[in-house]
Automatic annotation (TrEMBL):
GO-annotated cellular components: cytosol
Organism: Salipaludibacillus keqinensis
Chain ranges of the Sin domain: 67-105
Protein name: Transcriptional regulator
UniProt keyword DNA-binding present: yes
Lineage: Bacteria, Bacillati, Bacillota, Bacilli, Bacillales
Database matches in InterPro entries: Cro/C1-type_HTH, Lambda_DNA-bd_dom_sf, SinR/SinI_dimer_dom, SinR/SinI_dimer_dom_sf, TransReg_Diox_bact_type
């Protein structure tokens, strides 16, 4: 359940329920109800706020992954997301990024 995963990541981050609610700007009562599986259908906006504070991918809150997969998402997806955001903010277009990937594939074949 989503609430159980939120609670797991919150505890792993060493945060209290109050601290997570305050940092994410959500109601503590709603967060508590979610973690206790009283609320079972939170909005995507709510989960985005929670995921951002917990520094996890929103998919980690929605899907039940094994610990190894979860660690991979945590270590890889956040970094990739940051790189993509940085590329987008710097003005790199999708086409330019695709060209870079093609160039990189060609470069690897040349070795």
């Amino acid at each position: 359940m989503v609430g159980e995963r939120v609670q797991k990541f919150r505890k792993e981050a060493g945060m209290s329920l109050t601290e997570l609610a305050e940092r994410a700007g959500v109601a503590k009562s709603y967060l508590s109800a979610l973690e206790r599986n009283i609320q079972t259908n939170p909005s995507i906006q709510f989960l985005e706020k929670i995921a951002d504070v917990l520094k996890v991918n929103i998919n980690q809150l929605l899907k039940d992954n094994t610990e190894e997969e979860s660690e991979l998402y945590t270590n890889l997806d956040n970094e990739w997301q940051s790189l993509v955001k940085e590329a987008m903010n710097s003005g790199v277009s999708k086409e330019e990024f695709k060209e870079f990937l093609e160039f990189n594939k060609w470069k690897i074949k040349q070795k």
